[in-house]
Design brief:
Radius of gyration of chain A: 16 Å
Distance between the termini of chain A: 28 Å
Order of helices and strands of chain A: HEHHEEH
Protein name (chain A): PadR family transcriptional regulator
CATH architecture of chain A: Orthogonal Bundle
Strand content of chain B: under 5%
Radius of gyration of chain B: 23 Å
Strand order of the largest sheet of chain A: 1-3-2
Oligomer: heterodimer
Largest interface: A-B, 20 and 27 residues
Shape of chain A: elongated
Shape of chain B: elongated
Strand content of chain A: 5-15%
Order of helices and strands of chain B: HHHHHHEHHEHHHH
Largest sheet of chain A: 3 strands, antiparallel
Largest sheet of chain B: 2 strands, antiparallel
Number of strands of chain B: 2
Number of helices of chain A: 4
Distance between the termini of chain B: 20 Å
Strand order of the largest sheet of chain B: 1-2
Number of domains of chain A: 1
CATH topology of chain A: Arc Repressor Mutant, subunit A
Structural class of chain A: alpha+beta
Number of helices of chain B: 12
Number of domains of chain B: 3
Structural class of chain B: mainly alpha
CATH superfamily of chain A: Winged helix-like DNA-binding domain superfamily/Winged helix DNA-binding domain
Helix content of chain B: over 70%
CATH class of chain A: Mainly Alpha
Amino acid sequence: MKETQLLKGILEGCVLSIIKEQRIYGYELVQTMRNYGFTTIVGGTIYPLLQKLEKQGLITSSELTSPDGPNRKYFFITTEGEQQLEDFKDQWSSLIVKVNRILEKNGE
Amino acid sequence: MDLKNNTAQQLVEQNNKAREQLTPENKKYYEDVLVYMRTFGIFHEELETERHLMTILQDILEAQKHGESAEAYFGKNPKEIIDQLTKQFEKPSWKSIFKISGLIFLISSFYTICGVFIAPTLQINVLVLLMNGILSIALVYGAFKLLHWSIYIKKQFPKIIKFLFAWSLTMIPIGLFVLINLYAPKRGIVKIDPPFDWIAIVIILILATVYVLFKKNRDFYGALVYIVSLGFFGLLLRIPQTKELFQGGKNPTFLVLAIILPLALFGLVNWLVLRKMNDDN
Protein backbone atom coordinates (compact mmCIF):
# COMPACT_ATOMS: atom_id res chain seq x y z
CA MET A 1 0.00 0.00 0.00
CA LYS A 2 1.32 3.42 -0.93
CA GLU A 3 1.78 5.98 1.82
CA THR A 4 -0.86 8.30 0.39
CA GLN A 5 -3.35 5.46 0.22
CA LEU A 6 -2.63 4.60 3.82
CA LEU A 7 -3.17 8.23 4.83
CA LYS A 8 -6.38 8.41 2.81
CA GLY A 9 -7.70 5.33 4.53
CA ILE A 10 -6.90 6.81 7.94
CA LEU A 11 -8.57 10.10 7.01
CA GLU A 12 -11.67 8.22 5.85
CA GLY A 13 -11.83 6.43 9.18
CA CYS A 14 -11.51 9.72 11.07
CA VAL A 15 -14.20 11.38 8.95
CA LEU A 16 -16.59 8.45 9.47
CA SER A 17 -15.97 8.60 13.21
CA ILE A 18 -16.68 12.36 13.36
CA ILE A 19 -19.83 12.05 11.24
CA LYS A 20 -21.05 9.21 13.47
CA GLU A 21 -20.96 11.54 16.47
CA GLN A 22 -22.97 14.32 14.85
CA ARG A 23 -24.42 15.28 11.48
CA ILE A 24 -22.02 17.76 9.97
CA TYR A 25 -21.45 19.93 6.88
CA GLY A 26 -18.21 20.48 4.94
CA TYR A 27 -16.90 23.59 6.66
CA GLU A 28 -17.66 22.24 10.14
CA LEU A 29 -15.92 18.99 9.33
CA VAL A 30 -12.76 20.78 8.17
CA GLN A 31 -12.74 22.84 11.39
CA THR A 32 -13.30 19.76 13.56
CA MET A 33 -10.40 17.94 11.90
CA ARG A 34 -8.20 20.99 12.42
CA ASN A 35 -9.22 21.18 16.07
CA TYR A 36 -8.11 17.57 16.48
CA GLY A 37 -4.67 18.62 15.29
CA PHE A 38 -4.90 17.94 11.54
CA THR A 39 -3.94 21.58 10.99
CA THR A 40 -2.98 21.18 7.34
CA ILE A 41 -6.41 19.85 6.31
CA VAL A 42 -8.15 22.03 3.72
CA GLY A 43 -11.60 21.88 2.18
CA GLY A 44 -10.01 20.49 -0.96
CA THR A 45 -8.93 17.36 0.92
CA ILE A 46 -12.37 16.81 2.39
CA TYR A 47 -14.76 17.34 -0.54
CA PRO A 48 -13.50 14.53 -2.81
CA LEU A 49 -13.35 12.28 0.26
CA LEU A 50 -16.97 13.03 1.22
CA GLN A 51 -18.02 12.53 -2.40
CA LYS A 52 -16.31 9.13 -2.45
CA LEU A 53 -17.84 8.02 0.86
CA GLU A 54 -21.28 9.09 -0.38
CA LYS A 55 -20.84 7.18 -3.65
CA GLN A 56 -19.87 4.10 -1.67
CA GLY A 57 -23.01 4.46 0.43
CA LEU A 58 -21.08 4.87 3.67
CA ILE A 59 -22.58 8.29 4.29
CA THR A 60 -25.66 10.05 2.98
CA SER A 61 -26.50 13.73 2.71
CA SER A 62 -29.50 15.95 3.12
CA GLU A 63 -30.15 19.67 2.81
CA LEU A 64 -31.11 21.16 6.17
CA THR A 65 -31.40 24.64 7.58
CA SER A 66 -28.28 25.56 9.49
CA PRO A 67 -28.45 27.65 12.70
CA ASP A 68 -26.72 30.58 10.99
CA GLY A 69 -27.24 31.29 7.35
CA PRO A 70 -28.50 29.35 4.34
CA ASN A 71 -29.43 25.69 3.96
CA ARG A 72 -26.49 23.33 4.18
CA LYS A 73 -25.68 19.92 2.85
CA TYR A 74 -25.35 17.86 6.03
CA PHE A 75 -23.79 14.41 6.07
CA PHE A 76 -25.03 11.41 8.06
CA ILE A 77 -23.47 7.98 8.56
CA THR A 78 -25.29 4.93 7.14
CA THR A 79 -25.40 1.41 8.57
CA GLU A 80 -22.77 0.38 6.02
CA GLY A 81 -20.69 3.36 7.17
CA GLU A 82 -20.93 2.26 10.80
CA GLN A 83 -19.83 -1.25 9.82
CA GLN A 84 -16.92 0.23 7.86
CA LEU A 85 -15.97 2.34 10.89
CA GLU A 86 -15.91 -0.76 13.11
CA ASP A 87 -13.66 -2.53 10.58
CA PHE A 88 -11.40 0.52 10.49
CA LYS A 89 -11.15 0.58 14.30
CA ASP A 90 -10.12 -3.09 14.36
CA GLN A 91 -7.56 -2.63 11.60
CA TRP A 92 -6.20 0.49 13.24
CA SER A 93 -5.77 -1.09 16.68
CA SER A 94 -4.03 -4.11 15.25
CA LEU A 95 -1.82 -1.87 13.09
CA ILE A 96 -0.83 0.24 16.10
CA VAL A 97 0.07 -2.84 18.09
CA LYS A 98 2.23 -4.22 15.28
CA VAL A 99 3.95 -0.91 14.51
CA ASN A 100 4.61 -0.23 18.19
CA ARG A 101 6.07 -3.69 18.67
CA ILE A 102 8.61 -2.95 15.94
CA LEU A 103 9.38 0.57 17.07
CA GLU A 104 9.76 -0.40 20.73
CA LYS A 105 12.01 -3.36 19.93
CA ASN A 106 14.30 -1.33 17.68
CA GLY A 107 14.34 1.59 20.11
CA GLU A 108 15.74 -0.51 22.94
CA MET B 1 -36.49 26.37 0.95
CA ASP B 2 -35.32 22.87 0.19
CA LEU B 3 -32.17 22.90 -1.90
CA LYS B 4 -32.51 19.26 -2.85
CA ASN B 5 -35.55 19.95 -4.99
CA ASN B 6 -33.93 22.92 -6.66
CA THR B 7 -33.27 22.70 -10.35
CA ALA B 8 -29.83 23.42 -11.73
CA GLN B 9 -31.16 26.73 -13.04
CA GLN B 10 -32.34 27.83 -9.58
CA LEU B 11 -28.98 26.87 -8.10
CA VAL B 12 -27.21 28.95 -10.76
CA GLU B 13 -29.34 31.96 -9.85
CA GLN B 14 -28.75 31.52 -6.12
CA ASN B 15 -25.05 31.11 -6.82
CA ASN B 16 -25.00 34.37 -8.83
CA LYS B 17 -26.50 36.24 -5.89
CA ALA B 18 -24.47 34.62 -3.10
CA ARG B 19 -21.20 35.02 -5.00
CA GLU B 20 -21.50 38.80 -4.69
CA GLN B 21 -20.73 38.53 -0.97
CA LEU B 22 -17.20 37.30 -1.70
CA THR B 23 -14.22 39.64 -1.35
CA PRO B 24 -12.56 40.47 -4.69
CA GLU B 25 -9.66 38.07 -4.01
CA ASN B 26 -11.94 35.22 -2.96
CA LYS B 27 -14.28 35.92 -5.87
CA LYS B 28 -11.45 35.52 -8.37
CA TYR B 29 -10.44 32.25 -6.73
CA TYR B 30 -13.99 30.89 -6.60
CA GLU B 31 -14.96 31.96 -10.11
CA ASP B 32 -11.98 30.09 -11.53
CA VAL B 33 -13.21 27.01 -9.67
CA LEU B 34 -16.71 27.64 -11.02
CA VAL B 35 -15.72 28.00 -14.68
CA TYR B 36 -13.28 25.11 -14.46
CA MET B 37 -15.98 22.84 -13.05
CA ARG B 38 -18.79 23.99 -15.33
CA THR B 39 -16.67 23.52 -18.46
CA PHE B 40 -15.62 20.01 -17.46
CA GLY B 41 -18.11 18.46 -19.87
CA ILE B 42 -21.04 19.74 -21.88
CA PHE B 43 -22.91 16.45 -21.63
CA HIS B 44 -22.63 15.99 -17.85
CA GLU B 45 -25.51 16.37 -15.44
CA GLU B 46 -25.69 20.08 -14.58
CA LEU B 47 -27.39 19.48 -11.24
CA GLU B 48 -24.47 17.48 -9.84
CA THR B 49 -22.02 20.25 -10.82
CA GLU B 50 -24.21 23.01 -9.40
CA ARG B 51 -24.74 21.20 -6.08
CA HIS B 52 -20.98 20.85 -5.60
CA LEU B 53 -20.45 24.47 -6.57
CA MET B 54 -23.08 25.67 -4.09
CA THR B 55 -21.60 23.63 -1.22
CA ILE B 56 -18.11 24.96 -1.96
CA LEU B 57 -19.42 28.54 -2.20
CA GLN B 58 -21.28 28.34 1.11
CA ASP B 59 -18.23 26.93 2.85
CA ILE B 60 -15.90 29.55 1.38
CA LEU B 61 -18.36 32.26 2.49
CA GLU B 62 -18.32 30.83 6.00
CA ALA B 63 -14.51 30.68 5.98
CA GLN B 64 -14.47 34.30 4.80
CA LYS B 65 -16.73 35.26 7.71
CA HIS B 66 -14.16 33.73 10.05
CA GLY B 67 -11.34 35.68 8.43
CA GLU B 68 -9.94 32.86 6.34
CA SER B 69 -9.23 33.32 2.62
CA ALA B 70 -10.71 31.01 0.00
CA GLU B 71 -7.26 29.69 -0.83
CA ALA B 72 -6.37 29.02 2.81
CA TYR B 73 -9.67 27.21 3.31
CA PHE B 74 -10.07 25.30 0.06
CA GLY B 75 -6.45 24.65 -0.86
CA LYS B 76 -3.56 25.92 -2.94
CA ASN B 77 -4.25 23.50 -5.82
CA PRO B 78 -7.88 24.04 -6.79
CA LYS B 79 -7.26 22.42 -10.18
CA GLU B 80 -6.23 19.08 -8.66
CA ILE B 81 -9.14 19.17 -6.21
CA ILE B 82 -11.72 19.81 -8.92
CA ASP B 83 -10.10 17.15 -11.11
CA GLN B 84 -10.60 14.67 -8.27
CA LEU B 85 -14.25 15.70 -7.90
CA THR B 86 -15.09 15.65 -11.60
CA LYS B 87 -13.37 12.27 -12.01
CA GLN B 88 -16.07 10.81 -9.76
CA PHE B 89 -18.96 12.52 -11.57
CA GLU B 90 -21.66 10.32 -13.09
CA LYS B 91 -20.82 9.46 -16.69
CA PRO B 92 -23.11 11.36 -19.07
CA SER B 93 -26.07 9.29 -20.22
CA TRP B 94 -26.76 8.73 -23.92
CA LYS B 95 -30.02 10.53 -23.36
CA SER B 96 -28.25 13.67 -22.23
CA ILE B 97 -25.70 13.41 -25.05
CA PHE B 98 -28.52 13.22 -27.62
CA LYS B 99 -30.50 15.95 -25.91
CA ILE B 100 -27.66 18.46 -25.83
CA SER B 101 -26.30 17.63 -29.30
CA GLY B 102 -29.85 17.80 -30.62
CA LEU B 103 -30.41 21.21 -29.08
CA ILE B 104 -27.21 22.62 -30.59
CA PHE B 105 -28.15 21.05 -33.90
CA LEU B 106 -31.61 22.65 -33.80
CA ILE B 107 -30.24 26.09 -32.96
CA SER B 108 -27.67 25.78 -35.74
CA SER B 109 -30.33 24.69 -38.24
CA PHE B 110 -32.61 27.52 -37.17
CA TYR B 111 -29.90 30.11 -37.85
CA THR B 112 -29.04 28.45 -41.15
CA ILE B 113 -32.69 28.65 -42.21
CA CYS B 114 -33.06 32.26 -41.08
CA GLY B 115 -29.86 33.13 -42.94
CA VAL B 116 -31.49 32.34 -46.30
CA PHE B 117 -34.33 34.81 -45.62
CA ILE B 118 -32.26 37.47 -47.37
CA ALA B 119 -31.15 35.26 -50.26
CA PRO B 120 -32.88 35.87 -53.61
CA THR B 121 -34.54 32.43 -53.52
CA LEU B 122 -35.70 30.72 -50.36
CA GLN B 123 -33.80 27.43 -50.60
CA ILE B 124 -31.97 25.21 -48.18
CA ASN B 125 -29.31 22.66 -48.98
CA VAL B 126 -30.09 19.83 -46.55
CA LEU B 127 -26.46 18.72 -46.70
CA VAL B 128 -25.33 22.20 -45.58
CA LEU B 129 -27.89 22.12 -42.79
CA LEU B 130 -26.51 18.78 -41.62
CA MET B 131 -22.85 19.81 -41.86
CA ASN B 132 -23.46 23.16 -40.13
CA GLY B 133 -25.17 21.30 -37.30
CA ILE B 134 -22.33 18.82 -36.85
CA LEU B 135 -19.74 21.60 -37.02
CA SER B 136 -21.68 23.59 -34.40
CA ILE B 137 -21.69 20.64 -31.99
CA ALA B 138 -17.95 20.16 -32.52
CA LEU B 139 -17.28 23.87 -31.98
CA VAL B 140 -19.29 24.11 -28.75
CA TYR B 141 -17.55 20.99 -27.48
CA GLY B 142 -14.17 22.40 -28.45
CA ALA B 143 -14.92 25.78 -26.87
CA PHE B 144 -15.76 24.10 -23.55
CA LYS B 145 -12.60 22.00 -23.62
CA LEU B 146 -10.48 25.03 -24.48
CA LEU B 147 -11.93 27.18 -21.71
CA HIS B 148 -11.56 24.32 -19.23
CA TRP B 149 -7.96 23.81 -20.18
CA SER B 150 -7.09 27.53 -20.16
CA ILE B 151 -8.33 28.43 -16.64
CA TYR B 152 -5.32 27.24 -14.69
CA ILE B 153 -2.58 27.95 -17.20
CA LYS B 154 0.07 29.78 -15.23
CA LYS B 155 2.39 30.54 -18.12
CA GLN B 156 2.24 34.05 -19.51
CA PHE B 157 2.43 34.32 -23.29
CA PRO B 158 3.51 37.42 -25.23
CA LYS B 159 0.64 39.65 -26.35
CA ILE B 160 1.16 38.95 -30.04
CA ILE B 161 0.93 35.18 -29.51
CA LYS B 162 -2.28 35.63 -27.52
CA PHE B 163 -3.70 37.86 -30.23
CA LEU B 164 -2.82 35.45 -33.05
CA PHE B 165 -4.26 32.57 -31.03
CA ALA B 166 -7.54 34.40 -30.38
CA TRP B 167 -7.67 35.57 -33.99
CA SER B 168 -7.28 32.09 -35.44
CA LEU B 169 -9.78 30.72 -32.92
CA THR B 170 -12.36 33.16 -34.29
CA MET B 171 -11.41 32.86 -37.92
CA ILE B 172 -11.17 29.07 -38.23
CA PRO B 173 -14.85 28.45 -37.31
CA ILE B 174 -16.04 31.28 -39.56
CA GLY B 175 -13.85 29.96 -42.35
CA LEU B 176 -15.23 26.44 -41.91
CA PHE B 177 -18.84 27.65 -42.11
CA VAL B 178 -18.04 29.65 -45.26
CA LEU B 179 -16.30 26.63 -46.81
CA ILE B 180 -19.29 24.41 -46.10
CA ASN B 181 -21.64 26.90 -47.69
CA LEU B 182 -19.44 27.38 -50.75
CA TYR B 183 -18.31 23.85 -51.47
CA ALA B 184 -20.97 21.51 -50.10
CA PRO B 185 -22.31 19.36 -52.96
CA LYS B 186 -25.52 20.82 -54.33
CA ARG B 187 -27.69 17.86 -53.43
CA GLY B 188 -30.89 17.67 -51.50
CA ILE B 189 -31.84 21.28 -52.08
CA VAL B 190 -35.28 22.14 -50.76
CA LYS B 191 -36.73 25.17 -52.52
CA ILE B 192 -39.82 27.12 -51.57
CA ASP B 193 -41.34 29.02 -54.50
CA PRO B 194 -43.23 32.32 -54.29
CA PRO B 195 -45.69 33.16 -52.85
CA PHE B 196 -45.08 30.40 -50.30
CA ASP B 197 -41.62 31.77 -49.54
CA TRP B 198 -42.85 34.91 -47.82
CA ILE B 199 -45.69 32.99 -46.19
CA ALA B 200 -43.10 30.57 -44.77
CA ILE B 201 -41.06 33.50 -43.42
CA VAL B 202 -44.13 35.05 -41.77
CA ILE B 203 -45.03 31.72 -40.16
CA ILE B 204 -41.49 31.17 -38.84
CA LEU B 205 -41.36 34.71 -37.44
CA ILE B 206 -44.74 34.38 -35.73
CA LEU B 207 -43.82 31.00 -34.21
CA ALA B 208 -40.46 32.30 -32.98
CA THR B 209 -42.02 35.44 -31.48
CA VAL B 210 -44.77 33.53 -29.72
CA TYR B 211 -42.24 31.02 -28.40
CA VAL B 212 -39.88 33.65 -27.00
CA LEU B 213 -42.65 35.80 -25.49
CA PHE B 214 -44.26 32.70 -23.98
CA LYS B 215 -40.95 31.51 -22.48
CA LYS B 216 -40.19 35.03 -21.17
CA ASN B 217 -36.50 34.14 -21.36
CA ARG B 218 -34.39 37.27 -21.77
CA ASP B 219 -31.52 35.23 -23.20
CA PHE B 220 -33.56 34.81 -26.41
CA TYR B 221 -34.42 38.48 -26.99
CA GLY B 222 -31.26 39.23 -28.98
CA ALA B 223 -31.79 36.17 -31.19
CA LEU B 224 -35.43 37.08 -31.73
CA VAL B 225 -34.62 40.65 -32.81
CA TYR B 226 -31.96 39.22 -35.11
CA ILE B 227 -34.26 36.85 -36.96
CA VAL B 228 -37.20 39.29 -37.03
CA SER B 229 -35.03 41.93 -38.69
CA LEU B 230 -33.62 39.34 -41.08
CA GLY B 231 -37.20 38.28 -41.81
CA PHE B 232 -38.19 41.90 -42.33
CA PHE B 233 -35.56 42.31 -45.05
CA GLY B 234 -36.53 38.93 -46.46
CA LEU B 235 -40.14 40.07 -46.72
CA LEU B 236 -39.21 43.37 -48.37
CA LEU B 237 -37.43 41.27 -50.97
CA ARG B 238 -40.44 39.04 -51.64
CA ILE B 239 -43.69 40.91 -51.17
CA PRO B 240 -44.85 41.97 -54.65
CA GLN B 241 -45.40 45.59 -53.57
CA THR B 242 -41.77 46.16 -52.45
CA LYS B 243 -39.93 43.55 -54.50
CA GLU B 244 -39.06 45.83 -57.43
CA LEU B 245 -37.47 48.44 -55.16
CA PHE B 246 -34.64 46.08 -54.21
CA GLN B 247 -33.93 44.54 -57.59
CA GLY B 248 -34.45 41.01 -56.29
CA GLY B 249 -31.83 41.41 -53.59
CA LYS B 250 -29.00 42.34 -55.94
CA ASN B 251 -28.87 45.93 -54.72
CA PRO B 252 -25.55 46.21 -52.80
CA THR B 253 -26.88 48.78 -50.28
CA PHE B 254 -29.76 46.45 -49.51
CA LEU B 255 -27.45 43.47 -49.03
CA VAL B 256 -25.06 45.34 -46.74
CA LEU B 257 -27.95 46.69 -44.66
CA ALA B 258 -29.64 43.28 -44.52
CA ILE B 259 -26.44 41.66 -43.23
CA ILE B 260 -25.15 44.39 -40.89
CA LEU B 261 -28.35 45.73 -39.32
CA PRO B 262 -29.66 42.44 -37.86
CA LEU B 263 -26.20 41.67 -36.43
CA ALA B 264 -25.95 45.16 -34.92
CA LEU B 265 -29.42 44.83 -33.37
CA PHE B 266 -28.47 41.39 -32.05
CA GLY B 267 -25.42 42.87 -30.32
CA LEU B 268 -27.32 45.90 -29.01
CA VAL B 269 -30.21 43.92 -27.52
CA ASN B 270 -27.86 41.41 -25.88
CA TRP B 271 -25.83 44.26 -24.42
CA LEU B 272 -29.01 45.87 -23.01
CA VAL B 273 -30.24 42.55 -21.58
CA LEU B 274 -26.85 41.95 -19.94
CA ARG B 275 -26.87 45.44 -18.41
CA LYS B 276 -30.40 44.94 -17.12
CA MET B 277 -29.40 41.59 -15.57
CA ASN B 278 -26.43 43.21 -13.84
CA ASP B 279 -28.72 45.94 -12.48
CA ASP B 280 -31.14 43.31 -11.17
CA ASN B 281 -28.35 41.58 -9.28
